[in-house]
Specification:
With 415 residues, this protein is mainly α. 78% of the residues lie in helices and 0% in strands. The relative contact order is 0.17.
Amino acid sequence: MPSFKLLLIQIGTILIVTRLVGRLFRKLHQPSVVGEMIAGILLGPSLLGWLAPGVSVALFPPSSLGYLNLLSQVGLLLFMFLVGMELDLGHLRQLGRAAVMTSQVSIIAPFVMGLLFASYLYPRLSGESKSFTGFALFMGSAMSVTAFPVLARILTERNMLRTRVGSVALACAAVDDVTAWCILAGIIVIIRSSSGSILPIWLMLVSLAGFILVMLFVVKRTLPKLAALYEKRGSLTPDSIAVVMLLVLASGLATEAIGVHALFGAFVAGVVMPRHSGLARELSQKFEAVVVVLLLPLYFALTGLRSSIFLINGASMWLYCAAIIALAVAGKLGGSLISARMNGMSWREAASVGILMNTRGLVELVILNIGLDLGILSPALFSIMVLMALFTTVMTTPLLAWVYRGERSTSMVAG
Protein backbone atom coordinates (compact mmCIF):
# COMPACT_ATOMS: atom_id res chain seq x y z
CA MET A 1 0.00 0.00 0.00
CA PRO A 2 1.46 3.38 -0.96
CA SER A 3 2.50 5.59 1.92
CA PHE A 4 1.08 8.94 2.96
CA LYS A 5 4.55 10.38 2.39
CA LEU A 6 4.40 9.36 -1.27
CA LEU A 7 0.99 11.02 -1.63
CA LEU A 8 2.39 14.28 -0.24
CA ILE A 9 5.36 14.08 -2.62
CA GLN A 10 3.01 13.46 -5.56
CA ILE A 11 0.80 16.43 -4.67
CA GLY A 12 3.81 18.68 -4.14
CA THR A 13 5.37 17.67 -7.46
CA ILE A 14 2.12 18.21 -9.34
CA LEU A 15 1.58 21.63 -7.78
CA ILE A 16 5.12 22.80 -8.58
CA VAL A 17 5.02 21.63 -12.19
CA THR A 18 1.51 22.93 -12.93
CA ARG A 19 2.21 26.35 -11.38
CA LEU A 20 5.49 26.74 -13.27
CA VAL A 21 4.04 25.70 -16.63
CA GLY A 22 0.92 27.76 -15.99
CA ARG A 23 3.06 30.84 -15.32
CA LEU A 24 5.04 30.17 -18.51
CA PHE A 25 1.84 30.03 -20.55
CA ARG A 26 0.60 33.29 -19.03
CA LYS A 27 3.75 34.93 -20.37
CA LEU A 28 2.82 33.47 -23.76
CA HIS A 29 -0.59 35.21 -23.44
CA GLN A 30 -2.42 31.94 -22.84
CA PRO A 31 -4.77 31.26 -19.90
CA SER A 32 -2.84 29.60 -17.08
CA VAL A 33 -5.27 26.66 -17.11
CA VAL A 34 -3.96 25.75 -20.59
CA GLY A 35 -0.44 25.47 -19.18
CA GLU A 36 -1.71 23.43 -16.25
CA MET A 37 -3.48 21.03 -18.62
CA ILE A 38 -0.29 20.57 -20.62
CA ALA A 39 1.72 20.18 -17.40
CA GLY A 40 -0.44 17.18 -16.55
CA ILE A 41 0.40 15.62 -19.92
CA LEU A 42 4.12 16.25 -19.34
CA LEU A 43 4.00 14.34 -16.05
CA GLY A 44 2.66 11.24 -17.80
CA PRO A 45 4.23 8.75 -20.19
CA SER A 46 4.29 11.35 -22.98
CA LEU A 47 7.35 13.05 -21.41
CA LEU A 48 8.36 12.01 -17.87
CA GLY A 49 7.66 8.34 -18.54
CA TRP A 50 9.71 8.59 -21.73
CA LEU A 51 12.67 10.59 -20.41
CA ALA A 52 12.90 8.97 -16.97
CA PRO A 53 10.75 5.81 -16.77
CA GLY A 54 12.29 4.81 -13.44
CA VAL A 55 11.44 8.15 -11.87
CA SER A 56 7.93 7.99 -13.32
CA VAL A 57 7.24 4.54 -11.87
CA ALA A 58 8.70 5.50 -8.49
CA LEU A 59 6.74 8.76 -8.32
CA PHE A 60 3.43 7.52 -9.75
CA PRO A 61 3.15 3.76 -9.17
CA PRO A 62 -0.21 2.46 -10.43
CA SER A 63 -1.18 1.31 -6.94
CA SER A 64 -1.02 4.91 -5.66
CA LEU A 65 -3.26 6.55 -8.24
CA GLY A 66 -6.50 5.66 -6.48
CA TYR A 67 -5.81 8.21 -3.76
CA LEU A 68 -5.08 10.97 -6.27
CA ASN A 69 -8.20 10.00 -8.19
CA LEU A 70 -10.46 10.32 -5.14
CA LEU A 71 -9.08 13.77 -4.29
CA SER A 72 -9.41 14.96 -7.88
CA GLN A 73 -13.01 13.67 -8.11
CA VAL A 74 -13.99 15.84 -5.13
CA GLY A 75 -12.36 18.77 -6.92
CA LEU A 76 -14.29 17.98 -10.09
CA LEU A 77 -17.59 17.94 -8.20
CA LEU A 78 -16.90 21.45 -6.92
CA PHE A 79 -15.62 22.57 -10.33
CA MET A 80 -18.78 21.41 -12.10
CA PHE A 81 -20.81 23.21 -9.44
CA LEU A 82 -18.89 26.41 -10.25
CA VAL A 83 -19.46 25.87 -13.99
CA GLY A 84 -23.19 25.50 -13.42
CA MET A 85 -23.25 28.54 -11.14
CA GLU A 86 -21.56 30.71 -13.78
CA LEU A 87 -24.17 29.88 -16.43
CA ASP A 88 -27.02 32.33 -16.91
CA LEU A 89 -29.33 30.98 -19.60
CA GLY A 90 -31.73 33.86 -19.03
CA HIS A 91 -29.15 36.15 -20.62
CA LEU A 92 -29.73 34.40 -23.95
CA ARG A 93 -33.21 35.91 -24.28
CA GLN A 94 -31.71 39.41 -24.31
CA LEU A 95 -29.41 38.77 -27.27
CA GLY A 96 -31.84 38.00 -30.06
CA ARG A 97 -31.64 35.92 -33.18
CA ALA A 98 -27.83 35.92 -33.65
CA ALA A 99 -27.20 34.22 -30.31
CA VAL A 100 -30.10 31.77 -30.63
CA MET A 101 -29.19 30.61 -34.13
CA THR A 102 -25.45 30.53 -33.48
CA SER A 103 -25.90 28.44 -30.34
CA GLN A 104 -28.00 25.90 -32.26
CA VAL A 105 -25.60 25.64 -35.20
CA SER A 106 -22.54 25.50 -32.91
CA ILE A 107 -24.03 22.35 -31.37
CA ILE A 108 -25.57 20.69 -34.41
CA ALA A 109 -22.69 21.08 -36.89
CA PRO A 110 -19.91 19.49 -34.78
CA PHE A 111 -22.34 16.93 -33.35
CA VAL A 112 -23.33 15.70 -36.81
CA MET A 113 -19.68 15.62 -37.94
CA GLY A 114 -18.70 13.59 -34.88
CA LEU A 115 -21.68 11.30 -35.37
CA LEU A 116 -20.81 10.59 -39.01
CA PHE A 117 -17.10 10.07 -38.38
CA ALA A 118 -17.93 7.70 -35.52
CA SER A 119 -19.21 5.13 -38.02
CA TYR A 120 -15.69 4.99 -39.50
CA LEU A 121 -13.86 5.05 -36.16
CA TYR A 122 -16.05 2.53 -34.32
CA PRO A 123 -14.52 -0.73 -35.60
CA ARG A 124 -11.02 0.75 -35.32
CA LEU A 125 -10.74 2.86 -32.16
CA SER A 126 -13.76 2.27 -29.92
CA GLY A 127 -13.30 0.97 -26.40
CA GLU A 128 -14.65 -2.14 -24.71
CA SER A 129 -18.25 -0.95 -24.97
CA LYS A 130 -20.14 -2.82 -27.68
CA SER A 131 -22.77 -0.12 -28.23
CA PHE A 132 -22.29 1.79 -31.49
CA THR A 133 -25.13 4.12 -30.49
CA GLY A 134 -23.35 5.10 -27.29
CA PHE A 135 -20.03 5.53 -29.11
CA ALA A 136 -21.52 7.68 -31.89
CA LEU A 137 -23.47 9.90 -29.49
CA PHE A 138 -20.41 10.28 -27.30
CA MET A 139 -18.22 11.39 -30.24
CA GLY A 140 -20.88 13.89 -31.24
CA SER A 141 -21.14 15.38 -27.76
CA ALA A 142 -17.34 15.46 -27.33
CA MET A 143 -17.04 17.46 -30.56
CA SER A 144 -19.81 19.86 -29.47
CA VAL A 145 -18.61 21.01 -26.06
CA THR A 146 -17.26 24.50 -25.34
CA ALA A 147 -15.21 25.25 -22.21
CA PHE A 148 -17.39 27.96 -20.66
CA PRO A 149 -14.98 28.82 -17.78
CA VAL A 150 -11.92 29.15 -20.05
CA LEU A 151 -13.90 31.18 -22.58
CA ALA A 152 -15.12 33.54 -19.83
CA ARG A 153 -11.56 34.08 -18.60
CA ILE A 154 -10.26 34.82 -22.11
CA LEU A 155 -13.02 37.39 -22.61
CA THR A 156 -12.27 38.97 -19.22
CA GLU A 157 -8.55 39.24 -19.96
CA ARG A 158 -9.30 40.93 -23.32
CA ASN A 159 -12.00 43.24 -21.89
CA MET A 160 -14.59 41.72 -24.23
CA LEU A 161 -17.30 40.63 -21.77
CA ARG A 162 -19.55 43.60 -22.57
CA THR A 163 -19.09 43.47 -26.33
CA ARG A 164 -21.56 41.89 -28.69
CA VAL A 165 -18.98 39.21 -29.52
CA GLY A 166 -18.41 38.38 -25.87
CA SER A 167 -22.08 38.30 -24.96
CA VAL A 168 -23.08 36.10 -27.90
CA ALA A 169 -20.15 33.72 -27.29
CA LEU A 170 -20.93 33.41 -23.57
CA ALA A 171 -24.62 32.77 -24.18
CA CYS A 172 -23.88 30.17 -26.87
CA ALA A 173 -21.28 28.45 -24.67
CA ALA A 174 -23.81 28.26 -21.84
CA VAL A 175 -26.38 26.56 -24.08
CA ASP A 176 -23.69 24.27 -25.52
CA ASP A 177 -22.54 23.14 -22.09
CA VAL A 178 -26.05 22.39 -20.85
CA THR A 179 -26.86 20.52 -24.06
CA ALA A 180 -23.60 18.55 -24.03
CA TRP A 181 -24.10 17.46 -20.42
CA CYS A 182 -27.70 16.45 -21.07
CA ILE A 183 -26.59 14.37 -24.07
CA LEU A 184 -23.79 12.87 -21.99
CA ALA A 185 -26.28 11.94 -19.26
CA GLY A 186 -28.34 10.12 -21.88
CA ILE A 187 -25.24 8.33 -23.19
CA ILE A 188 -24.31 7.15 -19.71
CA VAL A 189 -27.86 5.84 -19.22
CA ILE A 190 -27.62 3.89 -22.51
CA ILE A 191 -24.18 2.43 -21.75
CA ARG A 192 -24.83 1.49 -18.14
CA SER A 193 -28.32 0.10 -18.77
CA SER A 194 -27.00 -2.13 -21.55
CA SER A 195 -24.48 -3.63 -19.10
CA GLY A 196 -27.36 -4.84 -16.94
CA SER A 197 -25.53 -3.86 -13.75
CA ILE A 198 -27.87 -1.07 -12.64
CA LEU A 199 -31.48 0.10 -12.91
CA PRO A 200 -33.54 -0.54 -16.06
CA ILE A 201 -33.30 2.30 -18.57
CA TRP A 202 -36.91 3.42 -18.07
CA LEU A 203 -36.42 3.68 -14.32
CA MET A 204 -33.16 5.60 -14.78
CA LEU A 205 -34.85 8.10 -17.12
CA VAL A 206 -37.82 8.57 -14.80
CA SER A 207 -35.51 8.98 -11.79
CA LEU A 208 -33.33 11.48 -13.65
CA ALA A 209 -36.36 13.50 -14.75
CA GLY A 210 -37.63 13.45 -11.16
CA PHE A 211 -34.27 14.67 -9.86
CA ILE A 212 -34.20 17.58 -12.33
CA LEU A 213 -37.79 18.57 -11.49
CA VAL A 214 -37.06 18.53 -7.74
CA MET A 215 -33.95 20.67 -8.27
CA LEU A 216 -35.77 23.19 -10.48
CA PHE A 217 -39.07 23.48 -8.63
CA VAL A 218 -38.23 22.66 -5.02
CA VAL A 219 -34.57 23.27 -4.28
CA LYS A 220 -34.30 26.35 -6.50
CA ARG A 221 -37.25 27.97 -4.71
CA THR A 222 -35.71 27.47 -1.27
CA LEU A 223 -32.23 28.74 -2.14
CA PRO A 224 -33.19 32.46 -2.23
CA LYS A 225 -33.22 32.18 1.58
CA LEU A 226 -29.47 31.68 1.30
CA ALA A 227 -29.17 34.92 -0.67
CA ALA A 228 -31.35 36.72 1.88
CA LEU A 229 -29.11 35.49 4.70
CA TYR A 230 -26.08 36.70 2.76
CA GLU A 231 -27.68 40.14 2.41
CA LYS A 232 -28.41 40.24 6.12
CA ARG A 233 -24.93 39.15 7.26
CA GLY A 234 -22.95 40.81 4.48
CA SER A 235 -20.82 37.71 3.98
CA LEU A 236 -21.00 33.93 3.80
CA THR A 237 -21.10 32.21 7.16
CA PRO A 238 -19.45 28.81 7.72
CA ASP A 239 -22.94 27.33 8.09
CA SER A 240 -23.97 28.73 4.68
CA ILE A 241 -20.87 27.28 3.05
CA ALA A 242 -21.62 23.92 4.70
CA VAL A 243 -25.18 24.02 3.30
CA VAL A 244 -23.87 24.65 -0.21
CA MET A 245 -21.30 21.87 0.13
CA LEU A 246 -23.99 19.46 1.33
CA LEU A 247 -26.18 20.43 -1.64
CA VAL A 248 -23.34 19.66 -4.06
CA LEU A 249 -22.55 16.34 -2.38
CA ALA A 250 -26.21 15.30 -2.11
CA SER A 251 -26.87 16.20 -5.76
CA GLY A 252 -23.82 14.25 -6.89
CA LEU A 253 -24.82 11.29 -4.74
CA ALA A 254 -28.36 11.34 -6.16
CA THR A 255 -27.30 11.21 -9.81
CA GLU A 256 -24.59 8.65 -9.06
CA ALA A 257 -27.23 6.45 -7.39
CA ILE A 258 -29.51 6.88 -10.40
CA GLY A 259 -26.67 5.63 -12.58
CA VAL A 260 -25.83 8.81 -14.50
CA HIS A 261 -22.77 10.47 -12.95
CA ALA A 262 -22.09 12.48 -9.81
CA LEU A 263 -20.69 15.36 -11.90
CA PHE A 264 -24.07 15.87 -13.58
CA GLY A 265 -25.72 16.35 -10.18
CA ALA A 266 -23.08 18.88 -9.11
CA PHE A 267 -23.57 20.76 -12.38
CA VAL A 268 -27.35 20.97 -11.85
CA ALA A 269 -26.75 22.16 -8.26
CA GLY A 270 -24.76 25.07 -9.66
CA VAL A 271 -27.42 25.89 -12.26
CA VAL A 272 -30.16 26.26 -9.60
CA MET A 273 -28.13 28.55 -7.35
CA PRO A 274 -29.52 32.10 -6.93
CA ARG A 275 -28.12 34.63 -9.45
CA HIS A 276 -26.97 36.98 -6.69
CA SER A 277 -23.73 38.68 -7.71
CA GLY A 278 -22.27 39.03 -4.21
CA LEU A 279 -23.17 35.51 -3.12
CA ALA A 280 -21.91 33.95 -6.35
CA ARG A 281 -18.68 35.96 -6.26
CA GLU A 282 -17.85 35.01 -2.68
CA LEU A 283 -18.73 31.34 -3.23
CA SER A 284 -16.50 31.26 -6.31
CA GLN A 285 -13.63 32.88 -4.45
CA LYS A 286 -13.82 30.46 -1.54
CA PHE A 287 -14.20 27.34 -3.68
CA GLU A 288 -11.68 28.29 -6.34
CA ALA A 289 -8.94 28.80 -3.76
CA VAL A 290 -8.91 25.05 -3.12
CA VAL A 291 -10.34 23.65 -6.35
CA VAL A 292 -8.27 25.55 -8.92
CA VAL A 293 -4.99 25.67 -7.01
CA LEU A 294 -4.95 22.21 -5.41
CA LEU A 295 -7.50 19.72 -6.70
CA LEU A 296 -7.77 20.38 -10.45
CA PRO A 297 -4.00 20.06 -11.02
CA LEU A 298 -4.31 16.53 -9.61
CA TYR A 299 -6.94 15.82 -12.26
CA PHE A 300 -4.68 17.18 -15.00
CA ALA A 301 -1.89 14.90 -13.82
CA LEU A 302 -4.19 11.87 -13.77
CA THR A 303 -5.36 12.68 -17.31
CA GLY A 304 -1.72 12.89 -18.38
CA LEU A 305 -0.95 9.55 -16.75
CA ARG A 306 -3.86 7.94 -18.63
CA SER A 307 -2.87 9.29 -22.04
CA SER A 308 0.27 8.84 -24.11
CA ILE A 309 1.35 10.37 -27.39
CA PHE A 310 3.13 7.11 -28.13
CA LEU A 311 -0.25 5.37 -28.50
CA ILE A 312 -0.73 7.47 -31.63
CA ASN A 313 1.79 5.47 -33.67
CA GLY A 314 1.89 5.02 -37.40
CA ALA A 315 0.68 7.12 -40.30
CA SER A 316 -2.92 5.91 -40.05
CA MET A 317 -3.22 6.91 -36.37
CA TRP A 318 -1.87 10.39 -37.08
CA LEU A 319 -4.31 10.69 -39.98
CA TYR A 320 -7.14 9.85 -37.58
CA CYS A 321 -5.80 12.50 -35.21
CA ALA A 322 -5.57 15.13 -37.97
CA ALA A 323 -9.06 14.27 -39.21
CA ILE A 324 -10.59 14.57 -35.73
CA ILE A 325 -8.92 17.94 -35.13
CA ALA A 326 -9.98 19.20 -38.57
CA LEU A 327 -13.59 18.08 -38.07
CA ALA A 328 -13.70 19.55 -34.57
CA VAL A 329 -12.46 22.93 -35.81
CA ALA A 330 -14.60 22.91 -38.96
CA GLY A 331 -17.77 21.99 -37.08
CA LYS A 332 -17.39 24.29 -34.11
CA LEU A 333 -15.46 27.26 -35.47
CA GLY A 334 -16.82 27.06 -39.01
CA GLY A 335 -20.42 26.41 -38.02
CA SER A 336 -20.47 29.23 -35.45
CA LEU A 337 -18.76 31.66 -37.85
CA ILE A 338 -21.17 31.04 -40.72
CA SER A 339 -24.25 31.20 -38.49
CA ALA A 340 -23.13 34.41 -36.77
CA ARG A 341 -22.36 36.02 -40.14
CA MET A 342 -25.74 35.00 -41.59
CA ASN A 343 -27.47 36.57 -38.59
CA GLY A 344 -26.10 40.07 -38.96
CA MET A 345 -22.64 40.07 -37.42
CA SER A 346 -19.62 41.42 -39.31
CA TRP A 347 -17.00 39.01 -40.61
CA ARG A 348 -14.61 40.01 -37.82
CA GLU A 349 -17.26 39.55 -35.12
CA ALA A 350 -18.45 36.26 -36.61
CA ALA A 351 -14.90 34.92 -36.86
CA SER A 352 -14.25 35.94 -33.25
CA VAL A 353 -17.38 34.12 -32.08
CA GLY A 354 -16.33 31.00 -34.01
CA ILE A 355 -12.83 31.06 -32.53
CA LEU A 356 -14.16 31.47 -28.99
CA MET A 357 -16.72 28.69 -29.42
CA ASN A 358 -13.92 26.34 -30.50
CA THR A 359 -12.38 26.52 -27.02
CA ARG A 360 -12.78 23.13 -25.31
CA GLY A 361 -10.43 23.13 -22.31
CA LEU A 362 -11.03 21.30 -19.05
CA VAL A 363 -14.70 20.54 -19.68
CA GLU A 364 -13.62 18.43 -22.66
CA LEU A 365 -11.08 16.54 -20.52
CA VAL A 366 -13.80 15.74 -17.99
CA ILE A 367 -16.05 14.30 -20.70
CA LEU A 368 -13.19 12.32 -22.26
CA ASN A 369 -12.22 10.75 -18.94
CA ILE A 370 -15.83 9.67 -18.43
CA GLY A 371 -15.75 8.09 -21.89
CA LEU A 372 -12.57 6.19 -21.04
CA ASP A 373 -14.00 5.02 -17.70
CA LEU A 374 -17.15 3.74 -19.41
CA GLY A 375 -15.17 1.85 -22.04
CA ILE A 376 -16.48 4.02 -24.87
CA LEU A 377 -13.02 5.22 -25.90
CA SER A 378 -9.93 3.10 -26.39
CA PRO A 379 -6.71 4.45 -24.77
CA ALA A 380 -5.44 5.44 -28.23
CA LEU A 381 -8.60 7.37 -29.15
CA PHE A 382 -8.61 8.93 -25.68
CA SER A 383 -5.06 10.23 -26.30
CA ILE A 384 -6.10 11.58 -29.72
CA MET A 385 -9.11 13.38 -28.25
CA VAL A 386 -6.97 14.86 -25.47
CA LEU A 387 -4.64 16.25 -28.14
CA MET A 388 -7.66 17.69 -29.94
CA ALA A 389 -8.85 19.37 -26.73
CA LEU A 390 -5.43 20.90 -26.12
CA PHE A 391 -4.97 22.02 -29.73
CA THR A 392 -8.37 23.71 -30.01
CA THR A 393 -7.86 25.47 -26.67
CA VAL A 394 -4.32 26.67 -27.36
CA MET A 395 -5.26 28.06 -30.78
CA THR A 396 -7.98 30.33 -29.35
CA THR A 397 -5.88 33.19 -27.97
CA PRO A 398 -3.48 33.70 -30.93
CA LEU A 399 -6.29 33.38 -33.49
CA LEU A 400 -8.46 35.82 -31.55
CA ALA A 401 -5.59 38.30 -31.33
CA TRP A 402 -5.04 38.01 -35.08
CA VAL A 403 -8.69 38.35 -36.11
CA TYR A 404 -10.02 40.69 -33.45
CA ARG A 405 -6.78 42.69 -33.12
CA GLY A 406 -7.63 43.86 -29.62
CA GLU A 407 -10.36 46.26 -30.77
CA ARG A 408 -13.63 46.49 -28.88
CA SER A 409 -16.77 45.80 -30.83
CA THR A 410 -18.83 48.88 -31.55
CA SER A 411 -22.02 46.91 -31.01
CA MET A 412 -22.47 46.81 -27.24
CA VAL A 413 -25.08 44.93 -25.29
CA ALA A 414 -27.95 47.14 -24.25
CA GLY A 415 -27.90 48.06 -20.58
